[in-house]
Specification:
single chain; alpha/beta; 15 helices; 5 strands; 45% helix; cytoplasm; hydrolase
Length: 352
């Protein structure tokens, strides 16, 4: 009778050694790689420590800090593979799972609204007005609005709706910046084929915040000529006359450029927004955009600079928005145009 085969011993699992970046790297290197310093990484981790804590206690489970670091590395570079190549330890599969889990936690409305808030109280709006007026003397401004396209890979459903007028797939993102380059409102859910004016019309800003008079009288947003003119949304004259209209346009252009530079800062800080985001479905891309906006504001609050290696040139936003389609004057809301005339005549008649 043959002897029984010897029992095969199970090989012990081998784990890659993980780098303790919070202690091994100084703040300058942390900011370069992850866009936050050590205190900032811990601050963001504490926001979602509960949901990110692994309840099983299994071997080599990633800590909440490491999950935040993996996500930050992806947002800073746009490359998932770098998260597993930079001595962080996780496999590519783990990186993908961690990014999904961490995005879900950080993109909750309860977290986002702590850091992205639109000014509606007299104190808040007056502070924004003072900040904007210091730029070029344009009165009554509490925000500058624009859209920006974030490129995505072709989705499996409703693919045609995501093709913008430049011919690539994108999410059209509406964003408002204050004079300090902080984001006060962001709408990231519309396919690239949707026009800026429709996104604004369907937004809570139009229907609720301004539509129901939640902000004090005399508060305005500045937008380009792709937007409809409203009593609360001031756009440039298409063919300005010499005098108040030309003075108005000049100050409007200088002041509104805040949003173009703000979008540039956002995309330089988080390079994932520069190239094509190859995750599915598009709703996950929208989570990425909103989390980047929130983290940008946290960086502003904590005076964290954009790393010099990616801050050599001023970013110019997508020409889709720098040169918007010019609607005929007859199609622009007359009430808004009449208000613009009164506003320009009142505030810019004596401007030199």
């Amino acid at each position: 009778m043959a002897a029984p085969a010897p029992l095969r011993q199970r090989r012990p699992r081998r784990f890659r050694e993980r780098k303790d970046v919070l202690h091994d790297l100084d703040d300058g290197e942390l900011i370069k790689r992850y866009r936050l310093d050590r205190a900032g990484i811990i601050f963001v981790t504490d926001l979602v420590r509960g949901p990110l804590t692994n309840p099983t206690g299994r071997n080599q489970a990633l800590t909440p800090e490491m999950k935040i670091i993996v996500l930050l590395r992806y947002l800073a570079t746009g490359k998932m593979q770098l998260c597993s190549m930079d001595d962080l330890g996780p496999s590519q599969q783990t990186v993908s799972r961690v990014i999904t889990e961490t995005l879900m936690a950080l993109s909750s409305n309860a977290i986002l609204t702590q850091f992205i808030t639109f000014p509606i109280t007299p104190h808040e709006t007056q502070r924004k007005i003072v900040d904007f007026q210091q730029i070029a003397g344009f009165p009554g401004v509490i925000g500058a609005i624009d859209g920006t396209h974030v490129r995505i890979s072709a989705p499996s459903e409703f693919e045609g709706e995501y093709v913008n007028r430049k011919g690539y797939h994108s999410i059209n993102v509406q964003v408002i910046f204050d004079a300090k380059y902080k984001i006060t409102d962001i709408v990231a859910k519309w396919p690239g084929s949707v026009h800026d004016a429709r996104i604004l019309n369907e937004s809570s800003l139009n229907r609720v915040v301004f539509g129901r008079g939640m902000v004090p009288d005399g508060c305005h947003l500045l937008g380009d000529s792709g937007y409809p003119s409203k009593k609360w949304l001031l756009t440039p004259y298409l063919r300005p006359q010499p005098g108040p209209q030309s003075n108005y346009n000049r100050a409007h252009k200088i002041t509104r450029s805040v949003v173009e530079r703000g979008i540039g800062q956002l995309k330089r800080r988080f390079h994932v927004l520069h190239g094509e985001i190859r995750v599915q479905p598009p709703s996950k891309v929208c989570q990425i955009i909103k989390v980047c906006a929130m983290l940008h504001n946290i960086c502003k609050d904590r005076n964290i600079y954009i790393p010099a290696a990616e801050d050599d040139e001023e970013e110019v936003d997508d020409p889709l928005h720098l040169q918007p389609p010019q609607p005929p004057a007859a199609q622009r809301p007359r009430e808004g145009l009449l208000y613009m005339d009164e506003f320009a005549d009142l505030h810019f008649r004596n401007d030199n």
